[in-house]
Amino acid sequence: MGVLMSKRQTVEQVQKEVQEEKEPDAGTPVTQEESSVHRAAWERLRDGRGVEPEEFDKTSRFTPPAFIRPTRKLDDDKPLEILLEPREPVVNDEMCDICEVWTAESLFPCRVCTRVFHDGCLRRMGYLQEDGSAAVMEMAHTETGWSCHYCDNLNLLLTEEEMYSLSETFQQCKVIPDCSLTLEDFVRYRHQAAKRGERNRALSDEQEEQAARQFAALDPEHQGHVEWPDFLSHESLLLLQQLRPQNSLLRLLTVKERERARAAFLALGSGNAISEAQCRQAQHSWFCKHPAEPASCNVSISHVGPIADRSPASSGSRSQDKALLPAEQESRSVDWPTFLRQSIIYILAARPNSAAIHLKPPG
Hints:
Recoverin, domain 1; two-stranded antiparallel ribbon
């Protein structure tokens, strides 16, 4: 996991020096100003930041702490045993992660990690807008839950080396950070990224159709474009899936996520195994982020987990899965370790608060 510097420590001095070095002269052409904006966007992408500290109103907001990207340990690819039983206790932190003060006020618990927050602290940090406070309060105390700013951004899971690789791909494919992508942009990027890969070939027709389906999953409101944070989370997941062994990915799961996976597995079967069809069903229905439709959620599974047929994540896909799976494959048993390994990437994909499906399962 990433390490955070002191909450009182700022990065203003470093950024001020960088700003002075790159500050254009009064007579600089507009093209250089645009280049400076793009360069700043790349720096925010590299550092996992969304807003520069100098853009904050310092009279009413804190300066966000500097984020240090995680590093992989030498033994993180060694086998990791996560047992179905006994269950793990889940205990949230007692103090607000921002101000480090305990008060009697209501604290927002993160559904992924054990951090808790005051709504006032979230607003002063710029992570919560005034008009979104009520929605966050409602979401944080439902079964769906709410992800904090650390867990909501899947890009923060990448190491410096992985982030450099992703940034190189973006630059060579001419992807501009902080900009939304249309379907044409998304498919063109996937073609270019495929040509840069090991096989050095363009997407097949089937892969292009799969890219279009993934675009639709990233654009659940049918706006015709994918927002930058959703695209970045999707690409970060693909890179993790490509570069990390499953044992390394297992170590990314938090105690809350492991407990939800246990609850999901036990709810799907009565013993130590479930069918292949049930495992695929869980992969397609792991995303439940809108409690406004109670009938769409399986209330026996807390927060994020397998949901019923009416959910956005599973509508129209479950019948396809059953048609695609042969009878013998549907009845093939899947034990707990296999279920967890096959579900890791989709559990991680369910972290963001966005309604987008950041990694659509095949089928």
